[in-house]
Design brief:
Elements: E1 4-8, H1 12-23, E2 27-32, H2 35-40, E3 47-50, H3 56-61, E4 69-72, H4 78-90, E5 95-99, H5 103-111, E6 116-118, H6 120-133, E7 137-142, E8 147-153, H7 163-166, H8 168-172, E9 175-181, E10 184-187, E11 200-206, H9 207-217
Parallel strand pairs: 1-2, 1-4, 2-3, 4-5, 5-6
Antiparallel strand pairs: 7-8, 8-11, 9-10, 9-11
The chain binds adenosine-5'-diphosphate.
Domain RCK N-terminal: 2-118
Pfam families: TrkA_C (PF02080), TrkA_N (PF02254)
GO biological process, one term: potassium ion transport
Amino acid sequence: MKKQFAVIGLGRFGGSVCKELYNMGHEVLAVDTDEDKVNEYANYSTHSVVANSTDENSLQSLGIRNFDHVIVAIGDNIQASILCTLLLKEMNIKQVWVKAQNEYHHKVVEKIGADRIIHPEHDMGVRIAQYLVSEKIIDYIELSPEYSIMELMGTKKVSHHSIAELDIRAKFGCTILGMKRGEEVIMSPTPDEIIKENDILIVIGHNKDLKRFEDEGL
Ligand code: ADP
Protein backbone atom coordinates (compact mmCIF):
# COMPACT_ATOMS: atom_id res chain seq x y z
CA MET A 1 0.00 0.00 0.00
CA LYS A 2 1.24 3.45 -0.88
CA LYS A 3 2.08 5.56 2.17
CA GLN A 4 2.89 9.22 2.66
CA PHE A 5 6.12 10.32 4.28
CA ALA A 6 7.85 13.63 4.85
CA VAL A 7 11.63 13.71 5.24
CA ILE A 8 13.09 16.85 6.81
CA GLY A 9 16.81 17.35 6.23
CA LEU A 10 18.40 15.83 3.14
CA GLY A 11 21.89 15.00 4.35
CA ARG A 12 23.38 11.53 3.92
CA PHE A 13 20.85 9.87 6.24
CA GLY A 14 17.68 11.80 5.31
CA GLY A 15 18.65 11.66 1.63
CA SER A 16 19.00 7.86 1.70
CA VAL A 17 15.69 7.45 3.52
CA CYS A 18 13.98 9.73 0.99
CA LYS A 19 15.40 7.93 -2.07
CA GLU A 20 14.63 4.47 -0.74
CA LEU A 21 11.02 5.32 0.19
CA TYR A 22 10.49 6.93 -3.21
CA ASN A 23 12.02 3.95 -5.04
CA MET A 24 9.65 1.69 -3.10
CA GLY A 25 6.77 3.65 -4.64
CA HIS A 26 5.71 5.74 -1.65
CA GLU A 27 4.79 9.39 -1.70
CA VAL A 28 7.63 11.44 -0.22
CA LEU A 29 7.78 15.13 0.61
CA ALA A 30 11.45 16.16 0.84
CA VAL A 31 12.27 19.30 2.84
CA ASP A 32 15.52 21.16 3.39
CA THR A 33 16.67 24.72 4.03
CA ASP A 34 19.35 24.29 1.39
CA GLU A 35 18.13 24.88 -2.16
CA ASP A 36 20.90 22.76 -3.70
CA LYS A 37 19.80 19.76 -1.63
CA VAL A 38 16.17 20.32 -2.60
CA ASN A 39 17.14 20.41 -6.30
CA GLU A 40 19.30 17.31 -5.87
CA TYR A 41 16.31 15.36 -4.53
CA ALA A 42 13.72 16.72 -6.99
CA ASN A 43 13.92 13.48 -8.99
CA TYR A 44 13.94 11.25 -5.91
CA SER A 45 10.81 12.57 -4.19
CA THR A 46 7.21 13.37 -5.02
CA HIS A 47 7.67 17.01 -3.97
CA SER A 48 10.85 18.70 -2.81
CA VAL A 49 10.56 22.03 -1.06
CA VAL A 50 12.86 24.65 0.44
CA ALA A 51 11.56 25.38 3.94
CA ASN A 52 12.80 26.02 7.43
CA SER A 53 11.26 23.30 9.55
CA THR A 54 11.70 25.26 12.78
CA ASP A 55 9.16 27.78 11.54
CA GLU A 56 5.64 26.74 12.45
CA ASN A 57 4.04 28.72 9.62
CA SER A 58 6.31 27.08 7.04
CA LEU A 59 5.40 23.64 8.37
CA GLN A 60 1.69 24.54 8.30
CA SER A 61 1.89 25.77 4.71
CA LEU A 62 3.56 22.49 3.67
CA GLY A 63 0.46 20.72 4.95
CA ILE A 64 2.69 18.58 7.12
CA ARG A 65 -0.12 17.83 9.55
CA ASN A 66 -1.66 15.58 6.91
CA PHE A 67 1.33 13.24 7.06
CA ASP A 68 1.20 10.22 9.34
CA HIS A 69 4.91 9.73 9.30
CA VAL A 70 7.66 12.36 9.41
CA ILE A 71 11.39 11.69 9.62
CA VAL A 72 13.47 14.47 11.18
CA ALA A 73 16.96 14.03 9.76
CA ILE A 74 18.49 17.37 10.62
CA GLY A 75 22.09 16.57 11.44
CA ASP A 76 24.38 18.86 13.35
CA ASN A 77 21.82 21.49 14.26
CA ILE A 78 20.47 19.80 17.38
CA GLN A 79 18.48 22.85 18.42
CA ALA A 80 16.64 22.91 15.06
CA SER A 81 15.98 19.18 15.28
CA ILE A 82 14.50 19.52 18.79
CA LEU A 83 12.30 22.47 17.87
CA CYS A 84 11.08 20.79 14.70
CA THR A 85 10.23 17.58 16.62
CA LEU A 86 8.32 19.62 19.21
CA LEU A 87 6.28 21.41 16.53
CA LEU A 88 5.47 18.14 14.76
CA LYS A 89 4.31 16.47 17.98
CA GLU A 90 2.22 19.55 18.82
CA MET A 91 0.54 19.07 15.43
CA ASN A 92 -0.35 15.55 16.57
CA ILE A 93 1.62 13.76 13.86
CA LYS A 94 1.35 10.10 14.73
CA GLN A 95 4.85 8.93 13.94
CA VAL A 96 7.79 11.29 14.28
CA TRP A 97 11.13 9.52 13.88
CA VAL A 98 14.24 11.50 14.71
CA LYS A 99 17.89 11.03 13.90
CA ALA A 100 19.76 11.76 17.13
CA GLN A 101 23.24 13.14 17.25
CA ASN A 102 24.13 12.18 20.83
CA GLU A 103 22.65 11.03 24.15
CA TYR A 104 21.60 14.54 25.18
CA HIS A 105 19.73 14.97 21.90
CA HIS A 106 18.16 11.53 22.37
CA LYS A 107 16.89 12.34 25.89
CA VAL A 108 15.33 15.64 24.87
CA VAL A 109 13.50 14.35 21.79
CA GLU A 110 12.35 11.32 23.77
CA LYS A 111 10.83 13.65 26.42
CA ILE A 112 8.99 15.71 23.83
CA GLY A 113 7.43 12.62 22.28
CA ALA A 114 9.60 11.36 19.40
CA ASP A 115 8.20 7.95 18.49
CA ARG A 116 11.49 6.46 17.41
CA ILE A 117 15.01 7.75 17.84
CA ILE A 118 17.71 6.57 15.49
CA HIS A 119 21.47 6.67 15.90
CA PRO A 120 22.54 5.58 12.40
CA GLU A 121 26.27 5.18 13.03
CA HIS A 122 25.76 3.40 16.35
CA ASP A 123 22.94 1.17 15.07
CA MET A 124 24.86 0.23 11.93
CA GLY A 125 27.96 -0.51 14.00
CA VAL A 126 25.98 -2.91 16.22
CA ARG A 127 24.47 -4.57 13.16
CA ILE A 128 27.82 -5.00 11.41
CA ALA A 129 29.30 -6.49 14.59
CA GLN A 130 26.45 -9.04 14.70
CA TYR A 131 27.13 -10.03 11.07
CA LEU A 132 30.84 -10.27 11.73
CA VAL A 133 30.54 -12.75 14.58
CA SER A 134 27.78 -14.89 13.16
CA GLU A 135 27.69 -16.35 9.70
CA LYS A 136 24.19 -17.61 10.46
CA ILE A 137 22.54 -14.17 10.77
CA ILE A 138 21.62 -12.82 7.35
CA ASP A 139 19.67 -9.81 8.60
CA TYR A 140 17.54 -8.67 11.47
CA ILE A 141 14.88 -6.14 12.38
CA GLU A 142 14.72 -4.86 15.94
CA LEU A 143 11.04 -4.68 16.94
CA SER A 144 11.80 -3.33 20.41
CA PRO A 145 14.90 -3.48 22.62
CA GLU A 146 13.83 -7.04 23.55
CA TYR A 147 12.21 -8.57 20.47
CA SER A 148 13.46 -9.00 16.91
CA ILE A 149 12.80 -10.71 13.62
CA MET A 150 15.89 -12.47 12.27
CA GLU A 151 16.78 -14.06 8.98
CA LEU A 152 18.88 -17.08 9.87
CA MET A 153 20.72 -19.47 7.60
CA GLY A 154 19.32 -23.01 7.58
CA THR A 155 22.39 -25.10 8.42
CA LYS A 156 23.14 -28.79 7.78
CA LYS A 157 21.97 -29.47 11.33
CA VAL A 158 18.36 -28.50 10.59
CA SER A 159 18.15 -29.55 6.95
CA HIS A 160 16.00 -32.58 6.04
CA HIS A 161 13.94 -32.03 9.21
CA SER A 162 10.40 -30.71 9.36
CA ILE A 163 9.53 -27.68 11.48
CA ALA A 164 7.46 -29.98 13.72
CA GLU A 165 10.41 -32.32 14.27
CA LEU A 166 12.67 -29.48 15.26
CA ASP A 167 10.02 -28.23 17.70
CA ILE A 168 11.59 -24.77 17.67
CA ARG A 169 8.74 -22.99 19.45
CA ALA A 170 8.70 -25.37 22.41
CA LYS A 171 12.48 -25.72 22.64
CA PHE A 172 13.55 -22.14 21.99
CA GLY A 173 10.41 -19.99 22.27
CA CYS A 174 10.85 -18.66 18.71
CA THR A 175 8.41 -18.84 15.81
CA ILE A 176 9.23 -19.33 12.12
CA LEU A 177 7.23 -16.73 10.19
CA GLY A 178 8.47 -17.70 6.79
CA MET A 179 11.26 -19.22 4.74
CA LYS A 180 13.19 -18.10 1.69
CA ARG A 181 14.35 -20.74 -0.76
CA GLY A 182 16.22 -18.99 -3.55
CA GLU A 183 13.67 -16.67 -5.14
CA GLU A 184 10.74 -18.46 -3.51
CA VAL A 185 9.22 -17.18 -0.27
CA ILE A 186 7.18 -19.61 1.83
CA MET A 187 4.97 -17.61 4.17
CA SER A 188 3.64 -19.16 7.40
CA PRO A 189 5.11 -22.60 6.63
CA THR A 190 3.12 -25.56 7.89
CA PRO A 191 4.69 -27.80 10.58
CA ASP A 192 5.36 -30.54 8.01
CA GLU A 193 7.48 -28.24 5.79
CA ILE A 194 10.92 -29.81 5.39
CA ILE A 195 13.83 -27.39 5.75
CA LYS A 196 16.56 -27.61 3.12
CA GLU A 197 20.15 -26.58 3.58
CA ASN A 198 20.66 -22.89 2.72
CA ASP A 199 16.97 -22.09 3.24
CA ILE A 200 16.72 -18.78 5.05
CA LEU A 201 14.51 -18.96 8.12
CA ILE A 202 12.60 -15.82 9.11
CA VAL A 203 12.19 -16.14 12.85
CA ILE A 204 10.53 -13.91 15.46
CA GLY A 205 11.24 -14.03 19.17
CA HIS A 206 12.85 -12.59 22.27
CA ASN A 207 16.49 -11.69 21.59
CA LYS A 208 17.66 -14.16 24.24
CA ASP A 209 15.64 -16.99 22.65
CA LEU A 210 16.82 -16.09 19.16
CA LYS A 211 20.43 -16.14 20.37
CA ARG A 212 19.86 -19.56 21.98
CA PHE A 213 18.29 -20.89 18.78
CA GLU A 214 21.17 -19.54 16.72
CA ASP A 215 23.80 -21.03 19.07
CA GLU A 216 22.22 -24.36 19.93
CA GLY A 217 19.52 -25.02 17.35
CA LEU A 218 21.37 -24.26 14.14
P1 ADP B 1 23.94 13.72 7.72
O1 ADP B 1 24.86 13.48 8.88
O2 ADP B 1 22.78 12.75 7.69
O3 ADP B 1 24.63 13.82 6.39
P2 ADP B 1 23.69 16.60 7.66
O4 ADP B 1 23.94 17.35 8.92
O5 ADP B 1 24.79 16.63 6.65
O6 ADP B 1 23.25 15.13 8.03
O7 ADP B 1 22.37 17.12 6.93
C1 ADP B 1 21.29 17.67 7.54
C2 ADP B 1 20.44 18.42 6.53
O8 ADP B 1 19.42 19.11 7.26
C3 ADP B 1 21.21 19.46 5.72
O9 ADP B 1 20.97 19.25 4.33
C4 ADP B 1 20.61 20.79 6.21
O10 ADP B 1 20.55 21.76 5.18
C5 ADP B 1 19.24 20.39 6.69
N1 ADP B 1 18.68 21.29 7.69
C6 ADP B 1 19.32 21.90 8.71
N2 ADP B 1 18.47 22.66 9.42
C7 ADP B 1 17.24 22.53 8.84
C8 ADP B 1 15.93 23.06 9.10
N3 ADP B 1 15.71 23.89 10.12
N4 ADP B 1 14.92 22.70 8.28
C9 ADP B 1 15.13 21.84 7.25
N5 ADP B 1 16.32 21.31 6.95
C10 ADP B 1 17.37 21.65 7.72
